[in-house]
Amino acid sequence: MQIDKTIIFILIILVAFACDNPKNKKSENETSIVVKTLPEKSNIRKSDKTEIKEIKSCKYIVREILTTSPRYLILTKDLTSEVVKNGGLSFGISLEGSPNPKQDTAMSYSRTYDYTLYEMYPERQLNTTRFKFNPNNKQLYEYDAVHDQLLRIEFDKNLLLQFNMNCNCFKKQQLFN
Fold first, then answer.
1. Which pLDDT tens digits describe the chain residue by residue (177 residues)?
2. How far apart are CA 153 and CA 83, in angstroms?
3. How far, in Å, CA of 51 to CA of 124, rounded?
4. Residue 130, class by beta-carbon neighbours within 10 Å (0-12 exposed, 13-18 middle, 19+ buried)?
5. CA distance 174 to 100
6. SS3 43
7. E-state strands within 18-162
8. pLDDT score recorded for residue 57
9. Is 84 left (phi over 0), alpha (psi -120 to 50) or beta?
10. Structural contact between residues 89 and 126, judged by C-beta atoms closer than 8 angstroms
11. Where are the beta strands (DSSP E) in 3-84?
12. How far does Cα 175 stand from its chain's mean position?
């Protein structure tokens, strides 16, 4: 029990220092991993011997919020085969805007995380759907181009815990910049 409290304390310190470092640059897939390994001869159950915690970048967590949402899953179901059937190559999502464009390698600054779902064809890229995640009210939206409005869409709220834990430093960094 004491070891678990120590590990949690160390993780909180690591997150605090990661948030305060303005030169902290992570690529999209880069994560920090903290591993706790206990001696083999201890009296602890086998499942408690190794615990892995990941500290992910904000854009990675928002991407996970988007790509696991029911609306995204409906839009992308069988999309690869449809794109290929129409002479295309694939589909994907890109980060167009971000509150931290340099750190997130986004195209421009935005108060929200702005993702675009696109289809790739040999001669062009076709943008089909735009999504926004607002870090202030923690809502995910789909842009309705016909009515020029944002529609709130459902997503896994359990991912907000991860977002809050790793991305609350985002506001601190803005205050000092």
1. 566 666 666 656 655 555 544 444 444 444 333 333 334 443 444 444 444 444 578 899 999 999 999 999 999 999 999 999 999 999 999 999 999 988 888 899 999 999 999 999 999 999 999 999 999 999 999 999 999 999 999 999 999 999 998 887 545 444 444
2. 24
3. 45
4. middle
5. 9
6. coil
7. 32-37, 50-55, 90-98, 108-109, 113-121, 124-134, 139-144, 149-153
8. 85
9. alpha
10. no
11. 32-37, 50-55
12. 22
Q: Which of 19, 18, 48, 45 is nearest to 36 (CA)?
A: 48
Residues facing residue 105 across a β-bridge: none
What pTM does this model have? 0.64
Dist CA 36 CA 160 (whole Å):
25
CA distances from 96 to 72, 93, 115 (A): 17, 9, 6
- Rounded CA-CA distance 153/34 in Å is 33
Q: List Cβ neighbours of 177 (8 Å cut-off, separation of 6 or more).
A: 22
Assign 151 to helix, strand or coil: strand
Residue 57, C-beta contacts closer than 8 angstroms, at least 6 positions apart: 26, 28, 30, 31, 103, 104, 166
Phi and psi at residue 168, to the nearest 5°: -70, -20
pLDDT of residue 167: 84
